[in-house]
Amino acid sequence: MDNLVSTEWLAGKLGSSDVVVLDASAHLPDAGRDAKAEFLEAHVPSARFLDLESFIDAGSDVPKALPTGEQFARRMADLGIVPSIPVVLYDDSAIRSSARAWFIFNLFEHENVAILDGGLAKWRQEGRMIEQGDETEIEPAAYPVPEQRPAVRHKAEMLLNIKGGGEQVIDARDAARFAGKEGSGSDGHIPGARSLHFAKLLNADGTYRSAESIRAVFEEAGIDLSRPIVTSCNSGITAAVLAFGLERAGHEGAALYDGSWMEWGADPATPKERG
Question: Which residues on adjacent β-strands are paired with residue 232?
C-alpha cells in the first residue's frame, strides 16, 4: 500500500477485513469544531475514531507531546489494531491533521499506513457512502509496545543545532507568524529556520500535489533535500504535513520538533528571529 491512497482505492476496500480506517480529525481551538461530534454525524463507513486530540503524552512538560510507545500500544489495542494490519487515516480538518497521525504511526514503525488523499471532504464531494453514529464493534487487540524511531527533536537539541548542528529547520506556520509581524500572535521563529507554509504542498481541492511538485516547493524554499531536516510549526500538527510531504518527495526520515513554537516561543531564554 502506498502512503497516499485515493478515495476510489479506499471505496474498493470497504467491507473487507484487511484494512482499518481511522478518522484522525483534529481542529485548532479557535475553529469552534468538535471532532468527535462531527465523526458521529458523518464518517467513512466502518471508520473508527482515533481521537487525535487526546493522543498525546499528557504527563510530559512538552505542550501537546507525542505519545509514548506504551500509550501508542494501548490506543492501538483499544482500537482493535494489530501491527500487521494496514491502516488508512483521513481527516476533515483545515490543518490536515491526518499527517500528524501518520507521523505517529511511522514513529512507532507501524509499517503499512496511508493517508486518504483529499480526506472526508473529497469523499463527500464524490457522493460516496457516509455512515452516522458509532456502531462499529471493536474487539480489543494485543499490540506490543513498539520501539521509537529517532525522529523526534527536543528543545535542548534544537538549541545545539543553532550553534552549529547540521539539520535544516523548516517552519510550517504562515509567513506572518514566522516573521513575527504585528498582530500575528507570534514573536518570530527559531534562528536559521526556513519558512514553508504547509498549505503550499496541497492542491486547491485539498489533495496533495505530485511528488515532483512537492519537491520543487521545498527546493524553492531553499531546502537541500540531500541534508537532514527537522520540521516545526505551532503545536506539532502541520509540521507533520511537511514531514509527510518530504517523504512523498523522496526525503526519508525527517524529524519533528515536538514542542514546536508553543514551547520555544513561551521560553524567554530561547533565541528568536524576526523577519
Answer: 171
Tens of pLDDT, residue by residue over 69-122, are 999 999 999 999 999 999 999 999 999 999 999 999 999 999 999 999 999 999
CA-to-CA separations, 32 to 26, 90, 119, in angstroms, rounded:
11, 20, 20
Under a CB-based contact definition with an 8 Å cutoff, are residues 25 and 92 in contact?
A: yes
CATH number at residue 220: 3.40.250.10
Query: Within a domain: residue 137?
Result: no
For residue 44, give its domain range.
4-125
What domain count does the chain have? 2
Instruction: Choose, from 21, 101, 217, 233, the residue flagged as catalytic.
Output: 233
Query: Strand locations in 24-166, DSSP E?
Result: 48-49, 87-90, 113-116, 152-153
Residue 136 is among the residues annotated as catalytic for this protein: no
The predicted-structure confidence for 28-50, as pLDDT tens digits, reads as follows 988 999 999 999 999 999 999 99
Q: How far apart are CA 178 and CA 186, in angstroms?
A: 7
DSSP 8-state secondary structure symbol assigned to residue 153: E
